[in-house]
Amino acid sequence: MAQLSEINISAQPNKSPNKRAEIKKKSLWVRIWEHKIFYLFLLPGIIWFIIFAYIPMYGVTIAFKDFNFAEGIIGSDWVGFKYFKQFFDYYQSWDIIRNTLVISLLKLVFGFPMPIILALLINEVRARVFKRAVQTISYLPHFISWVVVVTLMDRLLTPYGGPINGLIHALGFNEIAFMGNIKTFYPLVILSDIWKSVGWNTIIYLAAIAGIDPQLYEAAKMDGAGRFRQMWHVTLPSIKGVMVILFILATGSIMKAGFEQLLLLNTPATNAIGNVLDVYQVHAGLEQGRFSYAAAVGLFQGLIALILVVTANRISKKVNETSLW
Amino acid sequence: MKKGFKLALSLLLLFALTSLAACNNDSKTDASKDGKSVTLTILHNWNGSAASAPKDPLNNPVAKKIKEETGVTVKFTYAKKSEVETANEAFATGNLPDIYDGPAWGGEAQVLLKAANEGQLVDLTKYLDKYPNLKKFTKKENMSQTLYDTVFKKQKNGQYFLTEQYPKTKADIQDWLYGLYVRKDIAKKLGIDPQSVKTKEDLYNFLVKIKNANLKTADGKSIFPLGSYGNGFALGIMSQYFAPIPGDTGWMISDSGKAKMNFMTKNWDEYTMYMRKLLKEGLLDPKSFTQSGPAAQEKITQGRYAVVPTQFPQLYVSERQFVKDNPDKNFVPLGPIKDINGNQYKTVFNVQGSQLIAIPKSSKNVDAALKVLNYLASDEGYILTHFGIKGVHYDMVNGKPKAKKEWVDKLQDDPKALTDLGIGGPYADLSGFYRDYSLAGGPYGYQYNKRYDVQNEFTKIMRPDGIKASKGKDAGAFVQDSKYYDQLKPIFDTIGDVWRQAVYAESDQKAEEILNQTRKALKDAGIDKVTKKINKEVQNGTNFVRYTTPN
What we know:
The structure holds 2 protein chains of 2 kinds.
Chain A (H helix, E strand, L loop, with lengths): L1 H10 L5 H9 L2 H7 L1 H19 L10 E4 L3 H4 E3 L3 H8 L3 H19 L1 H12 L3 H12 L6 H12 L5 H8 L11 H29 L3 H9 L4 H25 L7 H7 L5 H4 L2 H11 L3 H29 L6
Antiparallel strand pairs in A: 1-2
Chain B lengths: L1 H22 L9 E2 L2 E8 L16 H10 L1 E7 L4 H11 L5 E5 L2 H12 L14 H4 L9 H6 L11 E3 L14 E5 H6 L10 H13 L11 E3 L24 E3 L5 E3 L4 H15 L12 H9 L3 E6 L1 H7 L1 H6 L5 E3 L14 E2 L5 E4 L7 H12 L1 H9 L6 E4 L2 E4 L1 H9 L22 H5 L9 H13 L5 E2 L5 H6 L4 H20 L3 H17 L2 H13 L12
Parallel strand pairs in B: 2-3, 2-4, 7-10, 12-16
Antiparallel strand pairs in B: 1-2, 4-13, 5-13, 6-10, 6-11, 8-9, 14-15
Helix pairs in contact in B: 3-4, 9-19, 9-20, 19-20
């Protein structure tokens, strides 16, 4: 208990001017030491980022080098933008970039609102048991590997004895080859992505909704607002900040269309619209052994993502006064 | 408070240390070296070869005998993804075995060449005099011209490779009997003699007949007229009806000496359209080019394919379960189908070995590695790895090993009975020249095993004119020496994907567009200039290979 009270006191935001001046006088290290328990919580995350995110960053230089097995990343010769040029000269590079953007934008347009809608719907459910059951069931697909999802899709949608086509046939229509069909490829990519991620992505919105002051709903009710009006005028504005933040983060993924999903779903029949940067990089890097080239493609992808996030953040800051930083 | 803080700090340290430990690889854990005994790791870089791994990796009869003879314990690791990827990953991360063994062709051999010329492999020059059994595996006459031109000739400042499993004598040239095979019962039901299907037009008509018969499996599933193994294997052999050397990057050299890469020719359009027609009309399983090996095997076991393109050893193993459940429904050769020039039986092989062996510089003990390889390449090593232990798995009869019948019978019930013991598995790939026929009269148990009777029967149907070895330079290898190769290679690397994309395109026009887009890219990258150079070489009298049969 003594520890808790200590924490509470040191975490108190309202301090007298004298106290604040006293804190300011203390050096950073002294203040860190005073709040060591909090910093300790932070430490595993920082260590993780240093080891797995920052230290490997030196590897990015491989994009500007002719990678040599013996010399390694540091010792290999610098070649400037050779591999970037090679990528932009490659006759399929713009097709690959276009495919990546189209798939990501479709996912953003159709996939982004889905968890918000589901969270709002779940929030309106009053029967607790049913609500919990819906939540749990909707989370489950998140834990299923894409390998299993695509295999299931294949078995369900095959025109050779699959149940969906069986139904179509029973209704008197011709079977449809859904998989490996250029016409159904994008719908399958988007729908399977939504199915897999929608439940999981509601968590953050449900948490935001749970944090809304109930007095706001009561006030709205007093003003005669029905359930829909309450949702429109209370719930949605209250979670707007979270929505904006998540949208900014989502823009950072626009150059990533989903490696596993597209590696498994794309076929020669759909390659013209399904070959994306994420998969191309792996093929070029690991299968063709062009490490520097693949790193250059990856770096280009990362830079565009960074520019998009910064731009979206700035726009949001100006328009909505909500931003990541 | 202090106690809690210390505990938390300790846990954190533990976390950090375990994180770092996770980054470390265990390459040194096998480095047990206690006095005379050494344990060496061998990367067997053949994707999926773990299926023929011995059950006990260290104490199987072959491993024990190797240890007894050389004092070295060998431990194999196996590729579980593409060979190129496995080799790249090993050299890029430095997580290297003590001995490398992989395919003596393709991208993986080029990765090894890059590693050699960047100083990652041991120069064997000074060692070879000490190991007489190995020296011959560096000689030009004991490898294909292509391997010599693309790998051995390009080694800088040393001798880094050995290549093994090249046939020791003409009798040892292995014919894999590539071709189309049809279910005997289906051909009979349609009243068609499989050997009466002789041209690609006959083949099309035959497949249409199968489709129109609306055949079903016992449990009501539809039967595809034409199928394939994983990733479209071996539909590529059908390109031989349109080009004298199969494959997108094969070269056609006319009698007048004009060269053209297959992909750039009208013949390739015709081939693409032929395959499109089969696909569009429901004659070819639409999953053929995309399905995995196990998925294809499932269809064969369920009896869902009427015709499959393959080689005999694969066919014999893959149809085993189906034939066991359905006697008299086995596959038999279809045709053979006439090639581009109308020859039905012409068979010319690019005779080659299969293994490229190297020792990474990080190897714990180069002498121990060479000692093992030297032993395995001896006749004793060959017999051990192919026939097992004398008195147990074989007897010596007239100076030749002869399989014990009880083991041949066991193999009928359990095809892995010997490989489980290390016989015929990865050890056999390191046994020098391929010499089953010259050393033992034939493969293990050929005297009793029904498989060899079937093989002989099929050989009579498919090779009545015998086989010949191709001679000359490979134009594809010549391209690799060109200054344009760096620009061409990325296109070559994806040319197969492009072709498949064209096969599946919505319309013939779209298919043409796809092919032409890549042709333009090839031209921009310099294919025409390379072609001119090959033409000039032909005029100057260079002998290029102009015809080969898949093998």
